[in-house]
Request: fold
Amino acid sequence: MPVKGTPIGTPAKVTQRSKTKGGIGESTLRPDGTLKVTGEFAYSSDMWHEDMLWGQILRSTVAHAEIVSIDTVEALKTPGVYAVMTYDDLPTDVKNYGLEIQDTPVLAHGKVRHHGEPVAIVAADHPETARRAAAKIKVEYRELPVITDESSATAPDAILVHENRDDHHIGHVPHPNIVHRQPIVRGDVESARERADFIVEGEYTFGMQDQAFLGPESGLAVPAEDGGVDLYIATQWLHSDLRQIAPVLGLPEDKVRMTLSGVGGAFGGREDLSMQIHACLLALRTGKPVKIVYNRFESFFGHVHRHPAKLHYEHGATKDGKLTHLKARIVLDGGAYASASPAVVGNASSLGAGPYAVDNVDIEAIALYTNNPPCGAMRGFGAVQACFAYEAQMDKLADKVGMDRVAFRQLNAMEQGTVMPTGQVVDSPAPVAELLRRVKAMPMPPEQQWLAAGEAADVRQLPGGLSNTTHGEGVVRGVGYAVGIKNVGFSEGFDDYSTAKVRLEVVGGEPVAVVHTAMAEVGQGGVTVHAQIARTELGVTQVTINPADTQVGSAGSTSASRQTYVTGGAVKNSCELVREKVLEMGRRKFGTYHPAWATAELLLEGGKVVTDAGEVLADLVDVLEGEAVEIEAEWRHRPTEAFDLRTGQGFGHVQYTFAAHRAVVEVDTELGLVKVIELACAQDVGKALNPLSVIGQIQGGTTQGLGIAVMEEIIVDPKTAKVRNPSFTDYLIPTILDTPTIPVDVLELADEHAPYGLRGIGEAPTLSSTPAVLAAVRNATGLELNRTPVRPEHLTGM
Amino acid sequence: MRVNFTVNGRPQEADDVWEGESLLYVLRERMGLPGSKNACEQGECGSCTVRLDGVPVCSCLVAAGQVEGREVVTVEGLADYAAQRSCGTGACGTSLDEAKDRKAKPLDSQTGEGTQLAPIQQAFIDAGAVQCGFCTPGLLVAADEMLEHNPNPTDADIREALSGNLCRCTGYEKIMDAVRLAAARQGEAV
Reply:
């Protein structure tokens, strides 16, 4: 088995050490900040066009049924309605789409497979007219039994969710209702188990989480005179959308021109298409611009969720606390369509052992096809579910061995050089023990503040908060720790590249860099960082970030903690190419005037060409003389490889990223109310290109982990597979009252393979936050709590 | 129906309003003021918060007809609203220094630099409280209103005042920082 333990590709050498203000490492402010605070920033739902129509989607009211008939007559007769379209109106033979497997119908064909599946679309001159017309479409369903879990999916007589699978996973899955299966096998678990002095087993359940980005799915499609369409859209990956949209419309990709609109958060929920094709279809059918904006109810049906999971774990340890083995089985519910399920399986299995050195491993992860809502990408992507389980196991095992829980983790922590269960050698810093040490060393919030405060005690700081349910009676403190491991970038051999076009020119007597990529800015601050990179590499103050669109090459997805690494790497690379060209121009023009042009290492700094000793050789304005230097280039990180389908061995991930949390909770044990007092995080970020944004990412990720620990869950009725809580009234995300202070300790240990040594950061804090909170609640209550989110009834036993 | 009301100090008239339309819809789709956001349209997230006769409300829950003859302040008018408040009843012309500051800068068209901002708006930018920004307008209106009547809020006061505004990106820490910063700057200025 070829396992690449040694790095391939050239480490990125930082030759440009420009001190230009606003470069990397500084907390520069967002270039879109002013527009966002004044309300002028144009999100996809803010688009407006003269003469525009509103699109509305009719969705299935049942989870699994044959469609007997669809009657659109009454809807079409509604005044103000311009078009009603069903499957029969699709213009080409391409009627499905999908990220990896094209199994998702643009509009239902003969069958619906989940509650809320799109069946028909309407365009009208007012959104309410469109809604009412859609309600007039009569769909007759013949209901089918619902498949909702592993036993119903793999029963001998189970109905197949997809009858005629021909995707590339069907050959290796044990049942057609399993999307993908990935075992990871290393060492010898059976004999290691005999050496174990202690064995712990656990069965864990992880609920279905929603990304709950605040900007709803929305966009505007404008038909063009050339027969094409211009689409203004919020997405995570323009070119992936384009690849899926154009064939359904029957248009070449250059006639579907996509521009990124303002994106109101994403968190994985915008990896799949939502209303893109529907808006384009209606625009092309009516010849008018069509805007579609989901409301929150529809948004809960309009995007995939985080896979709910059942996880069975067995760990063994010797009496001195060393892990002997791990056996795990992870069952992810992928719902009705594949979405990102195969890659989520790859992550859950390959990262299923957590950030620990363990030689004997037998992990199996599968994703099911069911009639539950489709699940796909969400921040943490398969690694989140596993972390919840293995961290619960670590506490149980530490207790059995009789060791401190943090010390037990540190004893077994992986480090640089550790061999992963996939056989991959971790070839950059993996400061797992150090992160735990740091998070443990942070000062503790004072105990029983309500006693010290006496009369001035503020109920808002107690469990139950403003509901005034306790003044401290029955309130118990608990502390919990957890640490996690996440991969960065697209893995398993995916050609994970990005493209950047960079131009250096003189505008108004001043050198200006223009950066153009297709990177989706979803709030993470990529646009801030791109400007910083350009300043550092090209030594200019003024940087213009052009809007992201499909007029430039793909940037890949704003997912997998990858954009600063990969598109940041592409911007850096293109800047370096521009710089070389500029220096060449300088040498040609001025080389004879100063020997340093030929002998010294030259930098661009403060709008000038300078030697590494600081001597100014020329002004950029004079070098360029009205000429612009522009380069568009693709950039790739070192390649990864697929996991072996039987053993899971392979150099699957380009980079790993780690975070640790300490949660401090106070639990009203009588009412089962949890107040998280503090959720401290320590994370290695390699290099913080923008420290303010880095901390913002860590705090935001931590809070999403808190949400799935104590409140967030999409409830699906097991009898009907219908979603029961599609609203912010019933699906609760943390408010500012639920969220504690989040002190952050940032460690910067460079990964020599990555641009500037940086490490992707967005997802790692979402992993360990959840198990840390659960550990703290267990610590406070003494309960086992093997499911998340934990709710009051789990704590009071009611 | 026709609705007449004042938005950000200017009298406005909306025609052909369907009776079921919300104030949020009229602002966004009829008045060209999309700053108030449509995150949930069910009164749970606070992203559409505006001042209605001074009181913060979710504009998605207010029927357009209810605002007949009343005054609405949206995030687009927040800077002017805060400026008028800070000058009280005295003469509030533009000082020469202020006027000089308004000179256009090369990046204005892209970043909005040079725009007059309310202190809370500036504090949100400076503290890193803006990520995707979709919750920001509602939070700004709510936070500005709190600081108007409680210039020295405790952390618990801030959390209570902003508890009706969901944010999914930031974990609220930088929002807390921004409100503390705005309060501190407001204190210094007095």
User: Anything to note?
Assistant: Chain B touches chain A through 67 residues (CB under 8 Å).
